[in-house]
Amino acid sequence: MSDLRVNSVLQTPQQATAPVTRDRPRLRQAVGEVVSTTFYGPMLRIARNSTIQGKYGHGGRGEKVFQAQLDSEFLNLAGSRMRNSLTEAIYQRLAKGKEE
After folding, report:
1. C-alpha 26: how far from chain center
2. How far is C-alpha 2 from the chain's CA centre?
């Protein structure tokens, strides 16, 4: 952050904020991962541990063996694709703090 302030004296405003705007996609991805892991992870775990399992619709032994990896992939997809108010609020707050 100190580099940005020192360099901003010597650069135009567009050049000084370039690193901030370049990092925004990574920030959005990181926020999505945190939200999916923190909020959707426990919900998925509870759903997996429920006693409601029918004769059909589950992956059997293979799904049980690789369940953690499958859940991790589900959470990564949810984090990267979902745009909800919580994710947006956290992203906006962090993006605003990064610009200052």
Report:
1. 9
2. 27
Tell me which H or E stretch contains 9: helix 2-10
Q: Is the pLDDT of residue 4 over 60?
A: no
Confidence of residue 1 (pLDDT cuts 50, 70, 90): very low
Q: Please report which confidence band the pLDDT of residue 7 belongs to, taking 50, 70 and 90 as the band edges.
A: very low
Q: How far is CA 38 from CA 20, 31, 42, in A?
A: 26, 10, 7
Give the torsion through C-alpha atoms of 32, 35, 38, 41, to 10 deg.
-70
Q: Which amino acid is at 90?
A: I
Buried b (16+ CB within 10 A) or exposed e, 65-96: eeeeebbeeebeebbeeeeeeebeebbeeebe
Name the residue ranges covered by the structural domains of the chain: 2-99
